[in-house]
Amino acid sequence: MNLKELAAELHLSQTTVSRALNGYPEVSEKTRQIVLAAAQRFGYRPSPAARRLATGRAHALGVVFNAERNALMDPLFVEYLAGVAETSAKQGFDILISPSTPHDEIATYSRLASDGTVDVVILSAPLCVDPRIALLSELKFPFVVHGRPPIPAGISYLDIDNFGAFQQATSFLIQLGHRRVMLINGEEQFTFVEDRSRGAATAFAAAGLPATLLDEHFMPMTAENAYRIARPALEADARPTAILCGSILVALGVLRAAAELGLDVPRDLSIVAHDDEMPAFPADQFHPQLTTTRSSIRAAGTRIAEVALARVAGQKPGAVAEVWPVQLIVRGSTAAAPERS
Amino acid sequence: MNLKELAAELHLSQTTVSRALNGYPEVSEKTRQIVLAAAQRFGYRPSPAARRLATGRAHALGVVFNAERNALMDPLFVEYLAGVAETSAKQGFDILISPSTPHDEIATYSRLASDGTVDVVILSAPLCVDPRIALLSELKFPFVVHGRPPIPAGISYLDIDNFGAFQQATSFLIQLGHRRVMLINGEEQFTFVEDRSRGAATAFAAAGLPATLLDEHFMPMTAENAYRIARPALEADARPTAILCGSILVALGVLRAAAELGLDVPRDLSIVAHDDEMPAFPADQFHPQLTTTRSSIRAAGTRIAEVALARVAGQKPGAVAEVWPVQLIVRGSTAAAPERS
DNA sequence: CACAGCGTTCAAAGCGCTTTGGGGATTGCC
DNA sequence: GGCAATCCCCAAAGCGCTTTGAACGCTGTG
User: Fold this and answer.
1) Can you give the distance from the CA of residue A13 to the C1' of nucleotide D4 in angstroms?
2) How confident is the model over A73-119, as pLDDT tens digits?
3) Kindly report the CA angle at A214 between A210 and A215, in degrees rounded to 5?
4) A2 touches strand C (CB under 7 A)
5) Structural domain tally of chain B?
6) Quick one: A288 and A168 in the same domain?
């Protein structure tokens, strides 16, 4: 059943029916009720394609899915998506996943922007130099950023306090007496990686300790990469007594390296990991339970979707700039630094 | 730039230009080349919305995303999605993620089917009694299934050999001398869970062993659930000497329980897990490295998307019914059963 | 030379919705 | 009673594409 038929059924014009359905004030409350009831009764649903063509609005938000990148580091992505889905469902928005490779990512964005298949895109994991942001800004296509944009001015975004999280975690380790600390960070190109790096460095500086004690490594945050870097480091003479991990996955690799070397966590080695709260991999299900800096990726997903929808509704870019605090949860993977041997 | 403008630019009718672009035979090769060149030059892209309205085809495939269910058990989902994305990108298809709660899932499907926002939906993790399949079948809406449909007749699907995988894994454990085996399975409602259950039972029967030696449990496959069930079982007198895990996540929980109880894997306890190849959690990054039944969820994703697109292209439902073999990979988490004490 | 046949191209009619620019009723006011 | 103002409602024009049915120009045949 389409509008025309419904209108005929009601002996009203399409215009009136359309307006009644869309809540325009030009139609009396009485007829609106009648129309609504009839629509309900006949199970009428406006055609999204037609509406889209007529209005130019897609009622969909776009997420570019870089398969290669995400597959590597993002079981998080599901949880994030679940968050996005939650709010977009409430507003009747669809989520369009546009696959892309690192190679054609920019082309994908520019297609999305010109196609009209989505009204807004959510951009994740911004880079320190981000061509995607540059492109969308120039095209004046609505977008919001999950993470800290390199140049935040005029951009609505939502981030967690990566700087604070790692500063806090590092200070905590320093207080426990750790001096040789390893930081297994993500890839240097991401702003969140830079923030974490600065956070850790700041903690060292604040404690009056030389920056050289912080052994930092940048890499895609997988268990295997972490294992590869942690294992030789832990075998060395001046091995680190504590390792800061960029994610739970990284911690997994470190745990393996430690186990293989017979190092007890936390007696011989302390571990702090950043935890985005993947329900599938709760930090407290590890052995030992992990001390973490915790933030909810899912909550971030629901919120950033809200911001995206507000943007569609006309809110100015830059109107939202939230940085969520991150909590340090001390569990069993951290202890006082071992005595100097 | 739209069709009309492009046509005007070329001094041709919209009809001709449209046909040239879409490869219809009614236009001469010469003009087709001219049109193609011009389209390229002006960067013309047909409006998806308009095309959709005119043709009724959406050029999109739908995946219903049940946030609650997926969040629990599916870091897999990303990897699967990556696979789907891979092939759909090649064909220029978009992926529409429709969020839903368990509550309104059926409504979501029926909306998708009547909306015209997608041309086909991919249904995952079919249930033993699956209202979604019933609905789509009745509506005659194109769909394909990832997993074994309860009644496979007339349905295109792709599944891995869950039965064979667990039969093989169980036989392997039995050969190692294990008699008290625990199976931590998923929720009973899924067909794959039933298949795995049957696989394990069959192995016991084939070995002439009583079914009572197989201690099977059904639950959402999370690390925490696994821990909760494994821990007391491992503390009991007649504790299992081997545990079959429905996923890597489940194995994680079991490993924790074992570690806390001071049980050595594989000396005191053997573990076999099913591994869908999440790159984030490679089975060989655990300590000990896990013996697994392995299949690639990502490859399944790319293939099921192909099947879905073939379905859109007119292939009959039921034309594809693939069951992929699953390989048993023996690593360090399995060993001969400990001596009877 | 007329006509059929073929290969190309075109004008126009949708697809189902929104929205502009009016226009009947009905009401309030003088 | 006449006029404008106020409500409601409508006809029709798009949105940008596909597709039907017709027409055009050209060739080959009787």
Assistant:
1) 27
2) 567 888 888 899 889 888 889 999 888 888 888 999 999 998 889 99
3) 140
4) yes
5) 3
6) yes
Query: Does residue B81 lie in a domain region?
Result: yes
pLDDT digits (tens, 9 = 90+) for B138-171: 999 999 999 999 999 999 999 999 999 999 999 9
Q: What is the DSSP secondary-structure string of A122-164?
A: EEES-BSS-HHHHHHHHHT--EEEES--SS-TT--EEEE-HHH
User: Between the CA of B36 and the C1' of D26, what is the distance in angstroms?
Assistant: 25
Residue A152 has a pLDDT of 96
Verify that A38 and A146 share a domain, yes or no.
no
Residues of B in contact with A125 (CB under 8 A): none
Point out the residue among B78, B88, B253 whose CB comes nearest to the CB of A99: B88
Answer for B8: CB within 7 Å of strand C. no
CB pair distance less than 8 Å for A78 and B75 = yes
CB atoms within 10 A of CB A85: 28
Find which of B269, B287, B290 to mutate to test the A interface (most A CBs within 10 Å of its CB): B287
CA distance B79 to A147: 22
Closest Cα of chain A to B266: distance in Å? 14
Residue A292 DSSP SS3? strand
Same domain, yes or no, for A199 and A225? yes
Residue A137 CB in 7 A reach of strand C: no
* A156 and A301 both lie in a single domain: yes
Cβ distance of B47 and A58 shorter than 8 Å: no
Residues A283 and A226 in one domain: yes
Per the domain annotation, does B55 fall within a domain?
no
* pLDDT tens readout for residues A139-190: 999 999 999 999 999 999 999 999 999 999 999 999 999 999 999 999 999 9
Query: Two tokens at B3?
Result: 């069709």
B325 touches chain A (CB under 8 A): no
The CATH number assigned to the domain holding A16 equals 1.10.260.40
Nearest nucleotide by C1' position to the A22 CA atom:
C18
Which residue's structure tokens are 């490594």? A217
How far A26 CA lies from chain B's nearest CA (Å)?
28
Task: Encode B39-51: b = buried (16+ Cβ within 10 Å), e = exposed.
Answer: beeeebebbbbbb
Residue ranges making up the domain that contains B11: 3-46
Say if B252 is an interface residue toward chain A (CB within 8 Å): yes
Where residue B240 sits, what CATH number does that domain have?
3.40.50.2300
How many residues are given for chain A?
A: 341
